[in-house]
Design goal:
317 residues; 8-stranded mixed beta sheet
Length: 317
């Protein structure tokens, strides 16, 4: 029985539970070992818990915050049983996530006062960036929105072709040029096309090269500047896509991209194939950027809006 009020539909919740199964099983197994033979939360249990959180890819800084919060509760309550530890962890991690992820969204929505709503997607190659764009296009279209895609990752022909496959699959228009074209030119054309088609949402794919941060920064800045010639306040959201299965490497990518450009939201993919789901908690807390979407499966509907209540419930139940 869940301690939280159900927000997601039964089907969506089952997908989330299944997607986080490996992370949850690994975490709870480590947690039970950490408290084995102990009836009360003492220094040994807290030391063990610290190891559990760090080895579950929650990250050192976030782990220390969680431990500090639990230590305060232990000091307050004097006697805190290990049987209560799971519930306390849920509460404290929910509290941490609430500081960054203000909303409790359950559906794919966009602000009603922005039309077209321009979403620029960044992230290194291989993290599921193009797939995330395709799935987002599908969800927005299902919600009755008119979507246009822009293939501004012109560094790789495969990226343009892959986005074309998704555009065909979802049946939305795409603006593309040849490989090696100026990405800002593609973005400009996409916004002009989107405006002329009265699009609700425009999603721009960008190149994911981190080997030279200065080049990346210059390229993304130029894309933004050119887009603003068409839509004055574009982009309305810069979404960084991270591969959750890479654990600490995702932290490093987040660090690099947040230095290169202003990232306003995160999508964490491939959580279904890994036990590193704790990375969502750490990244959300450490970078103070809201996690907007999580990928919990291969299916077109397996990209979900991140809901902190449902996530914590699935992770700990």
């Amino acid at each position: 029985m869940s301690l939280f009020k159900r927000i997601f539909s039964k089907e969506k919740k089952e997908t989330l539970d299944k997607g986080l199964e490996k992370s949850k099983t690994s975490f709870l197994s480590k947690l039970s070992k950490a408290v084995a033979g102990k009836s009360k939360v003492d220094d040994d249990v807290l030391d063990n818990l610290e190891e559990v959180l760090i080895s579950s890819d929650v990250g050192v800084e976030t782990t220390l915050k969680v431990i500090d919060r639990i230590e305060e509760r232990v000091a307050r309550d004097k006697y805190l049983g290990t049987d209560e530890l799971n519930l306390i962890l849920r509460e404290e991690i929910s509290g941490l996530l609430a500081e960054t992820n203000v909303g409790n969204e359950t559906e794919f929505t966009i602000p009603t006062d922005k039309k077209p709503y321009v979403l620029m997607v960044v992230g290194v190659n291989g993290v599921g960036k193009t797939t995330t764009i395709g799935k987002l296009a599908s969800q927005f279209k299902k919600a009755g929105k008119k979507v246009v895609l822009g293939a501004a990752d012109t560094f790789r022909a495969a990226a343009i072709d892959q986005l074309q496959v998704w555009a065909d699959r979802v049946d939305v228009p795409i603006v593309r040029q040849d490989m090696g074209s100026d990405p800002a030119s593609v973005a400009f054309d996409t916004l002009q096309s989107g405006v002329s088609q009265d699009a609700d949402v425009i999603i721009i794919d960008t190149a994911g090269r981190l080997h030279n941060k200065v080049n990346l920064m210059n390229e993304l800045t130029k894309i933004k500047r050119v887009m603003q010639k068409v839509v004055g306040d574009a982009p309305h959201d810069v979404l960084l896509v991270l591969d959750g299965s890479t654990g600490q490497n995702a932290f490093e990518q987040a660090k690099q991209f947040t230095k290169a450009t202003e990232v306003t939201s995160l999508a964490v993919t491939k959580l279904d194939g890994t036990a590193k789901g704790g990375v969502v908690i750490g990244i959300s807390d450490q970078f103070q950027i809201p996690v907007k979407y999580i990928g919990v499966g291969e299916g077109i509907d397996d990209l979900q809006v991140f809901n902190k209540v449902e996530f914590v419930d699935s992770f700990f139940k």
